[in-house]
């Protein structure tokens, strides 16, 4: 092997060593990454715990308030919220109908009331 250069022999030796060290190097890098991730979790734990504590307290308070308020059926809520507008609309339509009946006796539609108005001019 007198034909090979010293540079070729050096790179060949490094290449053989790199093949042998690849698996242990990957294991060391993995262990180092795992250690750094664990340290970050320990570092961030107080902030994470505080946030979880606040979220838990809010969830408990809201759940207790929702559970205490016995929610009625949706139909009961709908009737309660629309009863007054329904009654006011009924009163307005009835008053308007009574006024039209007094103005144009015998009229059965708004068109007949308008016709009565144009005839009375």
Walk me through the structure.
This protein folds into 2 domains: 71 residues, no CATH class; 49 residues. The chain contains 3 helices and no strands. The chain is elongated, with a radius of gyration of 44 Å.
Pick out its properties.
elongated, 121 residues, 3 helices, mainly alpha
Which helices and strands, and how do they pair?
Elements lengths: L5 H63 L5 H30 L6 H10 L2
Number of helices: 3
Work out the helicity level: over 70%
Class by alpha and beta content: mainly alpha
- Which stretches are poorly predicted, pLDDT < 50 over at least 5 residues? none
So what's the overall shape? elongated
Indicate how many domains the architecture comprises.
Answer: 2
* Radius of gyration (Å): 44 Å
Mean pLDDT reading: 84
- Compute the number of strand runs: 0
The helix-strand sequence is: HHH
Concise account of the structure shown:
By secondary structure, the chain is mostly helical. 85% of the residues lie in helices and 0% in strands.
């Amino acid at each position: 092997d007198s034909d090979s250069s010293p540079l070729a022999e050096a790179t060949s030796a490094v290449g053989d060593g790199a093949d042998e060290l690849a698996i242990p190097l990957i294991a060391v890098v993995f262990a180092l990454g795992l250690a750094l991730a664990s340290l970050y979790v320990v570092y961030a734990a107080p902030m994470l715990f505080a946030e979880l504590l606040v979220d838990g307290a809010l969830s408990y308070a809201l759940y207790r308030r929702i559970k205490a308020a016995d929610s009625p059926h949706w139909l009961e809520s709908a009737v309660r919220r629309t009863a007054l507008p329904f009654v006011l609309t009924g009163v307005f339509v009835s008053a308007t109908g009574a006024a039209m009946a007094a103005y144009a006796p015998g009229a059965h539609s708004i068109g007949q009331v308008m016709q009565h108005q144009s005839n009375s001019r």
